[in-house]
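#structure-requests
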Amino acid sequence: MIFVFIWVPLSIVAIFLLYILWINGYLIKSRKTSILFVGSFRQKRKCKIKFSSCNGYIKKVFKIRESHNYAFAFNSNITSGFVKAEIQNKSKKIILQLDENNPKSAINLDKNRRYYLVLKFKNADGDLDLTWN
């Protein structure tokens, strides 16, 4: 009985803290398989990744500080497979998509809305830099 009184409130607090970290862009949801994956998502206005035999996706809340037109650049050196970057709105509708064929684009984002940065990999080898201003 004491177990329930201690662990249930602690579990609720832990879930609440994880949710707060997620909506503020500090947690990353990842479902991928890879032989090698080295990435940096914490840099300001930049995402840099090296990967080998990568399949799956990475999803992160894309936190913006002010509303204006953002220019995105997808610089990649993909030796095999396919990689694309998407910006999705709260209802998971794709509002911007970048890949090797469409490496640059711009979109107007509102600071009062939530957006997601999603990177999708399919049998991909290489590296990429995603930057925005």
